[in-house]
Write a structure and sequence with these properties.
Blueprint: E1 8-12, H1 17-28, E2 32-37, H2 40-52, E3 56-61, H3 67-81, E4 86-89, H4 105-115, H5 117-133, E5 136-141, H6 153-173, E6 178-185, H7 191-199, H8 201-209, H9 219-230, E7 241-244
Parallel strand pairs: 1-2, 1-4, 2-3, 4-5, 5-6, 6-7
Helix pairs in contact: 1-2, 1-9, 3-5, 4-6, 7-8
Family: Belongs to the short-chain dehydrogenases/reductases (SDR) family.
EC number: 1.1.1.47
Protein name: Glucose 1-dehydrogenase
Length: about 250
């Protein structure tokens, strides 16, 4: 993809699933990658995979609920690779599928702190560096739950919020040459979903059968879109929630 080669990317939640595949894809396209996650083992594994294939990556333990960690993540990109061109703000947690009145305030706070405020913390750290160097491209991970009532209320609220942040950032920073978009994955075959399917195989079979594509999405289905959204090939795509769901919401 045009414009990725020799760039510098940070990816949060890169120790597993969608984030790991995005980090690998950035490296395959010739970018240097800062792999950020709370999970050190997962992060190290991602870096190992990238390096085994001749790519360039560094792990930095990052909890997106901690502003100092997030600042250190961006600083790692500057120190190790001399800049910051692309970011995939992707770290997130799912929910147990409970209804609004059935979870308590601490569960609400945790969901919003990681899935929504975590993205805001990343943007706050990334944007000034991109302004400094004259531009960049950022992709935030929302969900089909960011544009519909899929997922429980606190998850859906967090993912709707990510789209609001993405749109507002687009308007605020277009003049600075920074593009922002969001990806809205459907049901993607990652540890997040594998956990749910172990808990309820029958429900997962029903969900898979309800997807027009006839299969779950793969992390690569999302990663290829994220890297495209950071590339020059998508230079006029700005402020968009891009749904990647095998036709789930088309019904
Ligand atoms: N898998 C799906 O079907 C699906 C669908 C829609 C949206 N999403 C979103 O995609 C993103 C990635 O999900 P995934 O399916 O790859 O899940 P995953 O569980 O495989 O990976 C998530 C990663 O985020 C990390 N993480 C969690 N909390 C963190 C924190 N506070 N700071 C830093 N890292 C943290 C985890 O350690 C893990 O490595 C999430 O935002 C999720 O909500 C996933």
């Amino acid at each position: 993809m045009n414009g990725i080669q020799d760039g510098v990317a940070v990816v949060t939640g890169a120790g597993s699933g969608i984030g790991r595949q995005t980090a690998i894809r950035f490296a395959e396209e010739g970018a240097s990658v800062v792999v950020a996650d709370v999970d050190e083992e997962g992060g190290d594994e991602t870096v190992g995979t990238i390096r085994d294939e001749g790519g360039e990556a560094t792990f930095v333990r990052t909890d997106v609920t901690d502003g100092d960690d997030v600042d250190a993540m961006v600083q790692t990109a500057l120190d190790e690779y001399g800049g910051l061109d692309f970011a995939h703000n992707n770290a997130g947690i799912a929910d147990e599928g409970t209804r609004l009145a059935e979870y308590d305030e601490s569960e609400w706070d945790r969901m919003i702190d990681i899935n929504l405020k975590g993205v805001w913390r990343c943007l706050k750290a990334e944007i000034p560096e991109m302004i400094e160097q004259g531009g960049g491209a950022i992709v935030n991970t929302s969900s089909v739950a960011g544009v519909s009532a899929n997922g429980s209320a606190h998850y859906a609220a967090s993912k709707h919020g990510v789209i609001g942040l993405t749109r507002r950032a687009t308007v605020d920073y277009a003049d600075d040459g920074i593009r922002f978009n969001a990806v809205c994955p459907g049901v993607i075959d990652t540890p997040m979903v594998q956990q749910a399917s172990e808990d309820n195989t029958e429900e997962m079979e029903q969900i898979t059968a309800s997807i027009p594509a006839g299969r779950l999405g793969t992390p690569e289905d999302i990663a290829s879109t994220v890297v495209w959204l950071c590339s020059d090939d998508s230079s006029y795509v700005m402020g968009q929630p891009i749904v990647i769901d095998g036709g789930l919401l088309a019904q």
